[in-house]
Amino acid sequence: MKKIKLFIILIFISLTTGCWNYRELNDLAIVSAIGIDEENGVYNVSVQIMDPAQQGGNTNSSGSSSESTPIDVYEGQGKTILEAISNVLLKQPGDIFLGHVDVVVISDQLARKGIENFIDFLLRDRESRKIFPMVITKNTKASDIIKLITPLELISGKYINSTLEATKKNNGIISNRLFDEVLMCLFVEGREATISSIELIGSPEKGENLDNPSTSIPSTYFQISGSGVFIDDKLVGYFDLKESMGYTYIRNQSESTVISVPCDNEGNYAGIKLEKSSSKLKTTIKDRKPIGEITFDTKAVISEFNCKMDLLKTENIKKMEKITNKELKKLLDNTMISAQKEFKSDVLGFGEYLYKNNYKEWKKYKKNWNETFSNMEYKIKVSTEIRNVGSIIDSLKNSYEGNPNYGKE
Amino acid sequence: MKIDQTNKKLMNSNKKNIEEIKKRIGDSPDIIIKKLSFMKNVIHVIFNETLCDQQIINKFILEYFVETPMKSNPENIVKYLSENIPTRKTTKISDFDTLFYNLFSGFTIILIDGEEEALSIETRFQLDSGIQEAKDEYVLKGPKDAFTENYQTNIGQIRRRIKTEKLWLKEVELGTKSKTKIGIMYVSDIANVELVEQVINKIKDIEIDAILGSNYVIETISENKRNVFPNYLSTERPDFVAMNLLEGRIAIIVENMQYVIIIPAVFVDFFHSTEDLYQKSINTTYTRLIRIAALLITLLVPAIYIAITTFNQEAIPESLIINFAAQRSGVPFPALIEAILMIITFEILRETNLRIPSTLGSALSIVGAIVLGEAAVSAGIVSPIMVIVVAITSISGLTVSSSDIINGIRWWRIIFIVLASVSGLLGVLIASILFILNLASIKSFGIPYLSPIAPYYKNNQGNSIFLFNKYKFFKRNSLTAKKNLYRSKEND
How far is B165 from chain A (nearest CA, A)? Predict the structure, then answer.
């Protein structure tokens, strides 16, 4: 009897919870992207909501998804992000569900004033997963990106997300893609943040139209343009594509990237694919001055080769390695100069190394580190190992011009 | 409570005896009493025409009495007859209770005037359907024979497989009216003899007027009467019984029942089948894993679906959530009602399918397929995804051939669904804990139900979820077998 009583009590306890947090799937407004703009101290949040009726799952609409847009964008204003989002509820019926946010877009205007204020909301919210990508815009309003209709993928939030992912995998430009990586940068001592930037090309009004992707070249589209450089939580400028690439090399964030190196004096180039790279940062103190050191090792493959050179010979491979080293060093140097002189922001983490490995010294420089960093001397060591030359050995030029029997049977 | 009157001895007058018989059976017309004379004696041949083989009676009994030439009377007519009538088995009886028992078992009774003893001659007619192919536990490669309603045939089918004097049979007669024979079989040098004695004593203590099936026995002696999960296996396959006898288990054979009960059984045993013997061990392991996966699917899938669509939406992959939302958009019911509606519909179909004559089966399956599938979706009552969920749940529920355990699982499925709809994945977790607690609390004739996994017995892992050759050919299950743990001396 006691057992039965206990069991009944247990069942009632669980039933009287009132189904806390119970929501049917069709009552949700599933948000795929959030754009945050700011004007005169008021946040303008644009929320991109997926419209299930326009997706493939509906049995009634037989593939005719071209009647209305697959996404609905609602805007709300408020002094806090929460207020702005709750104002969205005035315009549509669903519960705002942030569990599936694909991307958060922050306007450059807001980023220049500081992003820390609203990051608190994203971090505090129970629903949102903390692993969505973040981007900042360049010369564009965030809401325009949110409203954009993209080809291939009907939901543009998802489209931006997959573009970022693919670029990161193949070009290595994307730095600190995910929200938690950005958070790390903001809170770690001795390293400043960068966030990838995208810009809109074409007119924003046309981009909202369902016709936008109907031509082979969409009239309005977005493009990854590099990354924004921060000091504390404020945007100070942008790395261009090459500088972003250098940044990801130094920060060990690139997976597989491609660079072109000149292989002769006649203006011919070879394409080198870097497959496994590792870089090490080091800051040493010499004569009371910090000195930075970057060691960059990479294993590469020649993927395209347009010069007359016999790649069977080891010395030629060595020569190619040398040229690659030089090219890579130039690339990394470029990023360093830009970070030091243009932005005076230690995005690379020399300060972080000092903080972790030489805390006594770090305390001395802590207050004015970015200034110290901008005048810091540094060394870059690059070593490349070419492991493979691809499916063919000789370049085509070499095989028919160097071979006396070419053309004869 | 004993219902029968006091046992009365046979009298030495045939007239009085027959009067008594007629009085006791209420003059039933299927009892034939035939008067003959044999060597100056008056003989009455009594038999039940529904239970006896008329041919045997004609050929061996009546013919014998008629055609044996008249000679001088032997000194002891009873002894003479029992030695001379050409039948398999002749016994002497001296009281009415035995007489009636034999009469209703299909024996022919011979009353001799002036003697206080009667003879009973076996003339039973084969009343069962004969040995047929196993229908409920079909195997691809393996013997096809199944148990019948005939007690002797059933024991014979087991004996034929284990030809050793160590295979012991104990018999108990139960039921004051039905007088059903219960056979308890075990291999004496493997099985746990103490358990056998306990079981026999428990069976002897049963007081009931009739035993009409093996469940009557097992449900009275089993220690977990309230639990939904069975702690015994019931099978119609003699080879499965033989396999389990050799593991030290005990078989209980009930007269007139074509299902033999095997005790003790633990949870993993329900995922074993006779097929395991006839396939390579390594492939059996794969099949067993599939069976366990099917159990988890049938138990968890509807609950998890409800949990993630109503509480934990962030757990659904993004491309799926939009599809789910689109499919759910026209459905008027909450997911819980939708699921219970579909599950009950399926259960009704299943129950109907079991009960209706097979000629109506195809009509039912057409209606069922339409109701459960296309029509329910296009009418907007359920979402297509729910049809898939219920379909996979139901199909997985059929992989375990034992209906005993599936009937238990059905209860738990509802508990899972309700808890999931109350508190999401947390509810599924709570239900899982309750489920495991429930299983762990069961004892099957002294053996923990979840063994050999919890408590963990390293030595028995080879034949629980996995099957290793070693356990098929060399070793026995040490939980059930108490002696001779190895199948042959050389591997000791």
Answer: 48
Question: What are the pLDDT digits (tens) for B90-138?
Answer: 888 888 888 888 888 888 888 888 888 888 888 887 766 678 888 888 8
Task: Spell out which residues of chain A touch residue B328, defining contact as CB-CB under 8 Å.
Answer: 24-26
Q: Which of the residues A25, A51, A103, A165 would you substitute to probe the B interface, choosing the one with the greatest number of B C-beta atoms within 10 Å?
A: A25
pTM of the predicted protein model: 0.78
Residues of B in contact with A15 (CB under 8 A): 422
pLDDT of res. A399:
65
**Confidence band of A239 (pLDDT split at 50, 70, 90):** very high
Who among B313, B377, B427 is closest to A25 (CB)?
Answer: B313
What is the predicted ipTM? Answer: 0.74
At B332, give phi and psi (nearest 5°): -75, -20
Class of domain A242-409: alpha beta
Residues of chain A with CATH 3.30.300.210: 242-409
* Chain A residues inside the 8 Å CB shell of B310: 22-25
B48's torsion region: left (phi>0), alpha (psi -120 to 50) or beta?
beta
List the beta bridge partners of residue A271: A260, A304
Decide: helix, strand or coil at residue A312.
Answer: coil
Confirm or reject contact between A25 and chain B (CB < 8 A): yes
Q: Where are chain B's structural domains?
A: 14-122, 151-265, 280-447
A399 touches chain B (CB under 8 A): no
Interchain contact, B421 vs A25, CB within 8 Å: no
Each residue's pLDDT tens digit, B389-422? 988 998 898 887 777 888 889 899 999 998 898 8
Nearest neighbour of B422 by CB, restricted to A17, A26, A127: A17
pLDDT in tens, B166-186: 899 999 988 888 889 899 999
In this structure, the strands spanning B260-263 and B180-187 are unpaired
Count of A-B CB contacts under 8 Å: 85
